[in-house]
Amino acid sequence: MKAMGTVFKYGNNVDTDVIIPARYLNTSDPSELAKHCMEDIDKEFCNNVKHGDIIVADKNFGCGSSREHAPIAIKATGVSCVIASTFARIFYRNAINTGLPILECEEAVKNISKGDQVEVNFETGVIYNHTKNQSYQAEGFPAFMRKIIAEDGLIQYIKKNLKESGDMEE
Amino acid sequence: MGMTMTQKILAAHAGLKEVKAGQLIQADLDLVLGNDITTPVAIKEFNKIGMKDVFDKKKVAIVPDHFTPNKDIKTAEQCKMIREFSYEKEIENYFEVGEMGIEHGLIPEKGLVVPGDVVIGADSHTCTYGALGAFSTGIGSTDMAAGMATGKCWFKVPSAIKFVLKGKPSKWVSGKDVILHIIGMIGVDGALYKSMEFVGEGIKNLSMDDRFAMANMAIEAGGKNGIFLVDDKTLDYAKKHSTKSYAVFTADDDAEYDEVYEIDLSILKPTVAFPHLPDNTRSIDDVGEVKIDQVVIGSCTNGRIEDLRVAAGILKDKKVAKGIRVIVFPVTQKVYLQALQEGLIEIFIKAGVVVSTPTCGPCLGGHMGILAKGERAIATTNRNFVGRMGHPESEVYLASPAVAAASALTGKITNPEDVVNEEVR
Ligand code: SF4
């Protein structure tokens, strides 16, 4: 699985209220939510984002509310991956559970600029910056989360495992 | 290796003798919670699993509170969907508008959480119940769906930061000021993925309402949960509100903490978080001249009875400053009624304050008090992100009910000490 696209770059603490403002939460329709994604900090985002594009942000991306509408909105804009130095924990869970690819990589965040062409290989965690001809290595996911991702999200995973009880200790 | 309070609760619910930070476990849930924004998404996911019933009709709670009473047609349809789901699945703890409240006020009040429980809620402020010595944390809608289906949730066992509180806060310092101080100190990601454990002799000087306000804002430091040591006040509260059996967990003496902070409550000052992050805090002495347009007193952080008493004490026999809109929204119908019986509602209305039905309303910029471009509010809520209470160019300052009420009288952010002489707290 690979992703390739143009980078939209943001700073620290991009919160769920700017990813999708509460005033639009009277629907959970992904295409409706996508129309307003990021509009409070970047009015141009929705006009310019193309299928496959990549969001790169610094620390604590997705902090704030538990609204799953945030990863749903990002995914519905066509964004193929979010790379951040760190993610807020509920956003991290929600992204995995809903199948929005995310990667933690401080080095990538430091070096990638707005508008760079970036390619991500999810198997290896290698992020390649075509514009700057650099590559960065992202943190891998723990095995258990890779299982959820492989099952295409938590619901499929649960469906498959409902009958098996037992713990998931690593 | 010893375990923290949180680790002990998680181990007990995972059927394990011991857990370590970083370990992935599956824990049994005592309660799964959702609201009118997150539950519709969870229902769609729940239906995909194909289970007929929820795992336990007593252990699911659904509270429409964010946009209720329904603010528009789309909201009404979302609420209709969760109402029908709740009836069809015979969910016992579905709360219709007349018996509702903001979920994090309502759930403890209804006795649905007791010490030692494990609770997940599709709302980030589910961490509030840590005040009761429970492990409770916010998750998303898909986790809620999986929790309703299986009664279990996966967790990565968190490491922890210990806050040892000592001393007694001065008159105008509340739990809200303590937690704002802490968030200002460690930052909005200072406790990312971690537990915040509150212990020390100082906690006896914090009421349950103070503790709820503090645990509520653990998420504003990035925390997975915030949890208080259980003491007599906790047990009194639990016994008064619930018949459920509880379990008291304390950290082992050799439990490992990433950091330990000692906080002397007696030297803290009223604290205000400036836009646009909860860690952008200043002591009331350093606030300067900040004119405001609106005052919001309420929310799952500070809409409890003590909060309203403090605010009413300051506003009694006075008038709010001309041109300032002041909105009080009690956290639950029960608190509303109590405030009415104590004469607080009359004080508010006479002072020129509007009192709203319990709802999240303005806290998340939903309805009932939205800000226009360039306007400023001081609020007892928990978030001051860009656009949180309305227009992206409006501003929210976070403070205690005392500071908010004092500011209502002057039209600018004000130290309660400057407007009140007599003992009101
Ligand atoms: S009052 Fe505000 S913070 Fe609390 S649950 Fe409602 S929207 Fe969330």
UniProtKB/TrEMBL annotation, chain A:
Biological or metabolic pathway of the protein: Amino-acid biosynthesis; L-leucine biosynthesis; L-leucine from 3-methyl-2-oxobutanoate: step 2/4
Keywords: Amino-acid biosynthesis, Branched-chain amino acid biosynthesis, Leucine biosynthesis, Lyase
GO biological process, alphabetically ordered: L-leucine biosynthetic process
InterPro entries in the cross-refs: Aconitase/3IPM_dehydase_swvl (IPR015928), AconitaseA/IPMdHydase_ssu_swvl (IPR000573), IPMI_Swivel (IPR033940), LeuD (IPR050075), LeuD/DmdB_bac (IPR011824), LeuD_type2/HacB/DmdB (IPR011827)
Gene Ontology molecular functions: 3-isopropylmalate dehydratase activity
Keyword Ion transport: no
SUPFAM superfamilies named among the record's database cross-references: LeuD/IlvD-like
Entry-linked HAMAP family: LeuD_type2
Entry-linked NCBIfam families: leud (TIGR02084), LEUD_arch (TIGR02087)
Family membership: Belongs to the LeuD family. LeuD type 2 subfamily.
PANTHER family attached to this UniProt entry: 3-ISOPROPYLMALATE DEHYDRATASE SMALL SUBUNIT 1, 3-ISOPROPYLMALATE DEHYDRATASE SMALL SUBUNIT 2-RELATED-RELATED
Known role: Catalyzes the isomerization between 2-isopropylmalate and 3-isopropylmalate, via the formation of 2-isopropylmaleate.
Protein's recorded name: 3-isopropylmalate dehydratase small subunit
Organism: Anaerovirgula multivorans
Gene of this entry: leuD
Automatic annotation (TrEMBL), chain B:
Encoding gene (name): leuC
Keyword RNA-binding set for record: no
Keywords associated with the record: 4Fe-4S, Amino-acid biosynthesis, Branched-chain amino acid biosynthesis, Iron, Iron-sulfur, Leucine biosynthesis, Lyase, Metal-binding
Species: Anaerovirgula multivorans
Source taxon at top rank: Bacteria
rRNA-binding listed as a keyword: no
Protein name per the record: 3-isopropylmalate dehydratase large subunit
First-tier enzyme category under EC: lyase
InterPro entries: Acnase/IPM_dHydase_lsu_aba_1/3, Acoase/IPM_deHydtase_lsu_aba, Aconitase_4Fe-4S_BS, Aconitase_4Fe-4S_dom, HAcnase/IPMdehydase_lsu_prok, Homoacnase/IPMdehydase_lsu, IPM_dehydratase_rel_enz, IPMI_cat
Single GO biological process annotation from the record: L-leucine biosynthetic process
